[in-house]
Specification:
With about 170 residues, this protein is of the alpha/beta class. It has one domain: Maf protein. The protein contains 5 helices and 5 strands; from the N terminus they run αβαβααβββα. β1, α2 and β2 form a beta-alpha-beta unit. α1 runs parallel beside α5. It is globular and about 45 Å long.
């Protein structure tokens, strides 16, 4: 795990602990293969804010989970995050779900990935294209690490956004 990923994970943990009533983070991963959840739970006390996650690597599992959109697409990233956030046993407390889907390579679409974020405020997907050098293995490692770093950055950004306030009648 890189120093940047460790730092981001620590920042996510501190922010999660500071949000009153925050239930936690749910992770769904494809091309990152569990690396995002691993980074989150590397922090001491992560069980305070990490609910858990699933690796849905192959299309058959994605379909079995009811995630019918093409598996590497902005729609899949957004809908899979929404599905996880609304999962059983979550209750009414604030939750953030983050998903990763993409191509770590080797292959023609290597380095293309999407990250989905879902909260009570809504869902979004974010597209990235990372170019990496080296052997197939080194490129895959770099692309997967970039996916984890981008996902943690998006979680921080989303959790830092002020809650929408309803105007009070005068």
């Amino acid at each position: 795990m890189t120093r940047d990923i460790r730092k981001l994970s620590a920042e996510v943990g501190a922010l999660c602990r500071s949000i009153p009533g925050f239930a936690g983070i749910i992770v769904g991963e494809s091309f990152t293969g569990g690396a995002l959840l691993s980074a989150l739970i590397a922090e001491p006390g992560a069980s305070d804010y990490v609910i858990g996650g699933v690796v849905f690597y192959r299309p058959e599992l994605k379909r079995a989970l009811g995630l019918g959109a093409p598996s590497v697409s902005p729609r899949f990233a957004r809908e899979s995050a929404r599905t996880l956030r609304r999962g059983p046993g979550i209750g009414k407390r604030p939750v953030i779900a983050v998903t990763t889907t993409g191509y770590a390579g080797p292959g023609g679409r290597e380095g293309l990935f999407y990250i989905g974020i879902a909260t009570a405020k809504g869902e979004s997907s974010h597209r990235f294209l990372i170019h990496a050098a080296g052997s197939d293995r080194r490129r895959r490692e770099a692309i997967r690490a970039a996916g984890v770093e981008k996902a943690l950055t998006l979680v921080l950004r989303e959790l830092s956004r002020p809650a929408k306030r309803t105007p009070r009648p005068h």
